[in-house]
Amino acid sequence: MDEVKVVVAHSERATLRVGDVFLKVDADRARVDAEVEAMALAPVPTPEVLWRKPPVLAIAALPGAALGRLGEPSTASPEAWAAAGAAIRKLHEAPLPPWSGRRRRDPGELAAELDGECESLVANGVLSADLVARNREVAEAAIRPWTPVFTHGDLQIDHVFVDGDEVTGIIDWSEAGRGDALFDLATFTLGHEEHLGDVLAGYGTDVDVDVIRAWWSLRSLLGVRWLVEHGFDAFAPGCEVDVLRARM
């Protein structure tokens, strides 16, 4: 029997790998429904759904390897990063999915959530007041009206697989829906600012880089406490806290 590897596990969901099969266990059936439908609608390569028996979704492994990891240097070529940018653009130009993204919030709601999170980070001694204040200032540029597009919603670098300079697939679509294109681009380049130019060259249209930088700060501020509470190390080199420090 193949070894069972725990890929990720926390209170919301767990993913196991057995050979070339990934088993995603998620008690939120609506989230699994959205993931399966998003993969069917997305005009980019996605994993094959092998079977589904709630709360488990079985998908096939993709060829190639993840483009990189947060906190680690990426060995992928500039051409691979550009190919990923082109795939993201193709997704963003696709017809809108029929559901709103889980991360879609109006600017006022997002600002209130951010203010509450910043207050908590300082009050509980998680981050310094100066670090939080500076990044809250930077994050302001992301809190604006935007035109919704088909977004992945959780486009971390290790969710994009490449073989050489070709994108072989994008995984983990549970947060997909109508969202902000620049949130996807910011999530993808978080901690890998040196590759932003390659990604945007492949994306092929002008974007507001200041808003992408703002999303780096905003996403990191909103994510630090959740990551710590769920057993992840936001303070590891190159990860969320370093992203915040870079804005200083």
Automatic annotation (TrEMBL):
Pfam families per record: APH (PF01636)
Ranges for domain Aminoglycoside phosphotransferase: 23-204
Membrane spanning residue stretches: none
Gene3D superfamilies xref list: 3.90.1200.10
InterPro entries: AGP_Transferase (IPR051678), Aminoglycoside_PTrfase (IPR002575), Kinase-like_dom_sf (IPR011009)
Protein name: Aminoglycoside phosphotransferase
Species annotation: Streptomyces varsoviensis
